[in-house]
Amino acid sequence: MTFECEKQIIDSLPLVEGRYSFNQKMSQTTWFKVGGPAEVFFKPAHAQDLSHFLKNKPSDMDILCMGAGSNVLVRDHGIKGCVVRLGSGFSGIEIDGPDIIVGAGCLDRTVVMKCLEEGISGLEFLVGVPGTIGGAIAMNAGAYGSEVKDFLRWVELMDEKGEIYRLSSSELSMNYRDGNLPEGSIALRAAFGCYKETQQVIKNKIDDFLKKREDSQPIKGRTGGSTFKNPEGYKAWELIDKAGCRGLRIGDAAVSEKHCNFLLNLDSATARDLEDLGETVRRKVKETSNIHLEWEILRLGM
Ligand SMILES: Cc1cc2nc3c(=O)[nH]c(=O)nc-3n(C[C@H](O)[C@H](O)[C@H](O)COP(=O)(O)OP(=O)(O)OC[C@H]3O[C@@H](n4cnc5c(N)ncnc54)[C@H](O)[C@@H]3O)c2cc1C
Question: Who lines ligand 1 at CB under 6 A?
Fold first, then answer.
């Protein structure tokens, strides 16, 4: 499946400093390694470039901002419109006392390592989350008892018209795995309130979190992390296990044996296989426990 990138679409796009590509295979940019193409894929050079693009793009062109693609399942027929990916022009890190201001394109791990270097503590829980800071805010990423909302002071956003504005953490009303960002907004950078700590204490925390993760999750697999949110008072993996779904397969899509809230693309699964497997798991959990599992992974496109 490819979109017919008529010359008309290309001609309708504004001149930018960043880079466009067409029919970009999302299987190359997402953790599951599945999914059809993005009609247009745009990597802006910097915030003004992104603003110029948003102000001058065709008004009917849909925009979707994607980070590292570690929490998404892009469907096999791809994404119509434009996928925006923030790159190196959005990955600056500034230290402000014990606080840290980070570009949304920065990888979580890079931020944690910078914190270690500077003796700043708080964000260690993000060390094994394989996404960007933009994705961590959009999803209110969390692990080991902490979540982004506990440390976020403010986020700078760009709206659909290319205007920049700032929201404080309290204005966002973030919830469990939901940053509650205003519809269509793109996070550009954010400030986190942290505290000073010795490098040894920070390193111990990082090592501990990485070890726990390696022991319990298939972190080297093609996966999207936790597939379903934990329902209030339950653990999704326990419900899935109880429903007999550990190791369940459809084609090359499998429920992980190691952590059964993770789905895996074992080799050549399609997005369809993975989504069908997820829906089968939901149905079996409903039958055995009478609980509706809610997808945490975002299913995107057609
Ligand atoms: C092995 C593995 C382990 C994981 N462990 C955890 C975990 O412990 N805890 C956890 O919470 N998650 C975990 N995840 C899920 C995922 O890594 C997180 O949700 C992560 O924060 C997503 O970041 P991303 O950059 O990959 O976002 P993407 O997957 O690219 O996008 C996710 C959402 O964020 C939006 N988004 C991305 N960037 C921006 C931006 N700049 N502005 C506005 N919206 C944006 C996208 O539109 C999309 O809606 C794991 C995933 C994997 C594969």
Answer: 31, 64-72, 86, 104, 129-132, 134-136, 138-139, 141-143, 181, 186-187, 217, 219, 223-225, 298
Q: Has 168 been annotated as catalytic?
A: no
278 has pLDDT over 70 = yes
How many whole angstroms from 12 Cα to the centroid of ligand 1?
31
The reply to whether 231 falls in a domain is yes
Burial class (CB in 10 A: 0-12, 13-18, 19+), 199: middle
What 243-250 contacts at long range (C-beta under 8 Å, 24+ apart), as own/partner pairs, is 243/281, 243/284, 243/285, 243/287, 243/288, 243/289, 244/284, 244/288, 245/280, 245/281, 245/284, 245/285, 248/277, 248/280, 248/281, 249/277, 250/276, 250/277, 250/280
Question: Which pLDDT belongs to residue 5?
Answer: 65
The domain of 23 spans 13-85
Prediction pTM value: 0.97
Same domain for 278 and 232: yes
At 8, the pLDDT band (50, 70, 90 cuts) reads confident
